[in-house]
Design brief:
Layout lengths: L7 H4 L7 H7 L2 H13 L5 H17 L4 E5 L11 E3 L1 E3 L5 E3 L3 H5 E2 L11 H4 L4 E5 L6 E3 L2 E10 L8 H21 L8 E15 H5 L2 H6 L24 H16 L4 E6 L5 E6 L2 E2 H21 L2 E4 L12 E10 L12 H20 L1 H6 L22 E2 L2 H12 L3 E3 L2 E3 L23 E3 L4 E7 L5 H23 L4 H16 L11 H9 L8 H4 L6 H9 L5 H55 L6 H30 L6 H29 L10 H5 L5
Helix pairs in contact: 3-4, 7-15, 10-11, 12-15, 12-16, 14-16, 20-21, 20-22, 21-22
The chain binds adenosine-5'-diphosphate and magnesium ion.
Length: 702
């Protein structure tokens, strides 16, 4: 880890129209009205918006901005922006700079080219963007960016932000109901916060440009194992290379200017792999910031003649990149509801929230799995070299024993203290970092937050947060419904906690999640193991899930079906692009290299024989034969892959198509890859022009 010294307080947030700037530049009453809107999520009046817009424009122009944009997050996984300049003709052939309240709060980008999963055909092409004032406006590339939610003409969500805000609302509502039962009335709002840890690879841009597969698919479609991989474990937390350091320095500074608390950075396990983690923020802001992190990683890498790879598995046989989201819920009074607290009362409240999360994860394993499903992440979850795709919770031995004791009414002894009766005795303080920081668990309790570790590195974190917020809201709703009817709160609370532990303890697993025996054990426990995206996605439209989303107004039935279609389409498209890229690379690069080398060997054999028939040419002949046999196999497998990519196009049903891409096209690609990788090891590097794994992974070496 390195600390980069610079004038951080001086630059931090300097490109953000944040609270301090608002306070300084807005009239008092307008500032107050805006703050109220932000705090209560209420509507922003147009007269207020006009004043805010004008102040924002003046500030932005002083900072060099010429344009503004509604910055939004369509279902492409990345952000979108359409720039308009502030210029307005003044009638005398001159121009003035203007920005109205209307332009601030609402935009109308043409929605027709963004994925809508069928929503487009039933609604107008027009889409609306609406400012989310809880996420501050900022300046990027001389453009004032206004974080917005993106909806169709009739208000259906076309983006990641809208359902995220709705899920935060649902969680807020249900958590407040539960807190009221505990007599907590000072809290006005409950929010979920997230700290995302982002992994990525950095390689030299020149090498990147020589690999069409990296350029078009984000991952290498072939490549034999390098002689040195990550086995020496010398990269993890190792000294950071100068070029990487320069990149990180600029990245941090740009992020700080945008108000992102970029905090830790270090080398990861694989060569060329790194991680960046900012300090946690409210879910919607953390999401906006993570999008900025990914975007800036790419653009700043390019400035340093580097390429940043965000794909989940750029290299087979080398660790892939994931993203961990550290998730917690707290009140506007700063009380973390996943913090055990000091009094029996706080402990009881903590236990209820804890078992709510346990139940939510168990009841909705399928949705959590869906939230991390993608063609890229399939290489990490459930693949040979990665953790299984099973969702389970790590609690640590101590907390698990406490739950056991509660469930069985036995005494729990810890450091001379005996437990316990819910709401009567104090929980022991369990140290946050006990021996068992289990890195193999997909969902781990880490003292006062949960860490969900199954996300792919390229994901928008909004998807998994929407699911987490909503499923926990749903369980809190069930708990509140039950306890609000109770005449004996303490006794019924205790019963509810015990019952929940009994019913859902199967989801708790503190052992090694990477061990094969866990797969069997999980099956015995009846836990889901949805290995691939096509296997996982149908859960999204399962009636129990559709009903839950609708109940909490996070997705309408129509919206969830549209997302399902988009996700299936994205999956099929990703594999299709990979297959076409592979076919192209084999035809244009692999086969010519093989032919050239075969030709060279054949000529050598002929020349040798011409000198004298007695000269032995068997090493060359053996090699040529070996390559010839592999080329034959290459031709067959290439033909088969080509046939499959054409054949699947006739499939009309989206799910069947995705399955066919997995079972036929992807499998054919894997077979073809094996031959190419064998050939790579035999062909001379004079002919093999595609950079090898070693050349890519060690391309940044100073
Ligand atoms: P690790 O040891 O897994 O790298 P850290 O303790 O460094 O974890 O924290 C990782 C992330 O968790 C950071 O983004 C941090 O800000 C975030 N985090 C810490 N506390 C909380 C919390 N209460 N809620 C949400 N995220 C948190
Ligand atoms: Mg972590």
């Amino acid at each position: 880890m390195v600390n980069i010294n610079s004038n951080i307080p001086g630059i931090f947030g300097s490109m953000v129209f944040g609270d301090a700037v608002m306070k300084e530049r807005l009239p008092k009453d307008i500032y107050k009205a805006l703050k109220k809107t932000i705090a209560n999520g209420t509507h922003l009046e147009l007269d207020v918006a006009n004043v805010v817009a004008s102040a924002m424009k003046d500030w932005a122009i002083e900072k060099g901005a010429t344009h503004f944009t509604h910055w939004f997050q369509p279902m492409t996984g990345i952000t979108a922006e359409k720039h308009d300049s502030f210029i307005v003709p003044d009638g005398d052939g001159q121009a003035i700079m203007e920005f109205s309240g209307k332009a601030l709060v609402k935009g109308e980008p043409d929605a027709s080219s963004f994925p809508s999963g069928g929503l487009r055909t039933t609604f107008e092409a027009r889409g609306y963007t609406a400012w989310d004032p809880t996420s501050y406006a900022f300046i990027k590339d001389n453009t004032l960016c206004i974080p917005t939610a993106f909806c169709s003409y009739s208000g259906e969500a076309l983006d990641m932000k809208t359902p995220l805000l709705r899920s935060m609302q649902a969680l807020n509502h249900q958590a407040l109901r539960v807190l009221h039962l505990f007599g907590v009335t000072d809290a006005k709002r409950v929010v979920s916060s997230v700290g995302p840890e982002q992994e990525y690879f950095l390689i030299d841009k020149d090498v990147f440009l020589k690999r069409p597969d990296l350029m078009y698919c984000g991952r290498t479609l072939f490549g034999a194992r390098p002689p040195k991989g990550q086995e020496m474990e010398d990269h993890y937390f190792g000294a950071i290379k100068h070029r990487v350091y320069e990149f990180m320095k600029e990245l941090n500074e740009e992020l700080w200017k945008l108000g992102v608390y970029a905090k830790t950075q270090h080398n990861e396990v694989a060569p060329a792999q790194h991680e960046l983690a900012p300090i946690y923020r409210e879910s919607n802001i953390a999401t906006d910031h993570n999008q900025l992190v990914m975007e800036l990683m790419k653009s700043i890498a390019a400035k340093h003649n580097l390429a940043c790879l965000l794909h989940e598995k750029p290299f087979a046989g080398v660790n892939g990149s994931g993203k961990h989201i550290n998730w917690s819920i707290s009140t506007d009074k700063g009380i973390n509801l996943l913090e055990p607290g000091d009094t029996p009362f706080e402990n009881a409240q903590f236990l209820l929230f804890l078992v709510a999360v346990i139940k939510a994860v168990d009841d909705y394993q399928d949705l959590l799995r869906v939230s991390v499903a993608s063609a890229g992440n399939d290489h990490r979850l459930g693949a040979n070299e990665a953790p299984p795709a099973i969702v389970s919770i790590f609690l640590g031995d101590e907390l698990t024993e406490i739950l056991n004791a509660l469930e069985n009414d036995t005494l729990y002894e810890c450091k001379g203290k005996t437990l316990m009766e819910i709401g009567a005795t104090v929980l022991p303080h369990f140290p946050k970092d006990t021996t068992d920081r289990n890195r193999t668990s997909p969902f781990a309790f880490t003292g006062n937050k949960f860490e969900f570790r199954m996300l792919g590195s390229s994901f928008s974190i909004a998807g998994p947060i929407i699911i987490l917020n909503t499923i926990v809201a749903e369980v809190l709703r069930q708990f509140a419904d039950e306890l609000e009817k109770s005449n004996d709160f303490k006794s019924d609370l205790s019963k509810l906690i015990k019952r929940t532990i009994k019913q859902h303890k199967r989801i708790i697993f503190n052992g090694n999640g990477y061990d094969q025996s866990w797969v069997k054990e999980a099956e015995r426990r009846g836990l889901l193991n949805l290995k691939t995206t096509p296997e996982a996605l149908p859960a999204l439209i399962h009636p129990k899930n559709v009903e839950m989303f609708a109940r909490h107004r996070v997705f309408t039935e129509h919206e969830i079906h549209s997302r399902y279609d988009i996700l299936l389409e994205n999956y099929s498209k990703a594999i299709n692009i990979e297959a076409l890229t592979m076919i192209d690379m084999v035809n244009k690069q692999v086969i010519p290299a093989v032919l050239d080398y075969e030709n060279e060997l054949a000529e050598l054999i002929i020349r040798k024989r011409a000198i004298s028939p007695d000269i032995i040419a068997s090493p060359e002949e053996n090699l040529l034969n070996k390559i010839a046999r592999l080329s034959e196999c290459l031709e067959k497998r290439l033909e088969y892959l080509t046939e499959q990519t054409v054949a699947v196009r006739d499939i009309k049903d989206n799910l069947e198509l995705a399955k066919a891409y997995r079972e036929r096209v992807y499998m054919a690609m894997s077979e073809l890859r094996l031959v190419v990788d064998e050939l790579e090891l035999l062909i001379s590097s004079r002919h093999w022009k595609i950079p090898t794994y070693a050349e890519i992974l060690y391309s940044v070496n100073e």
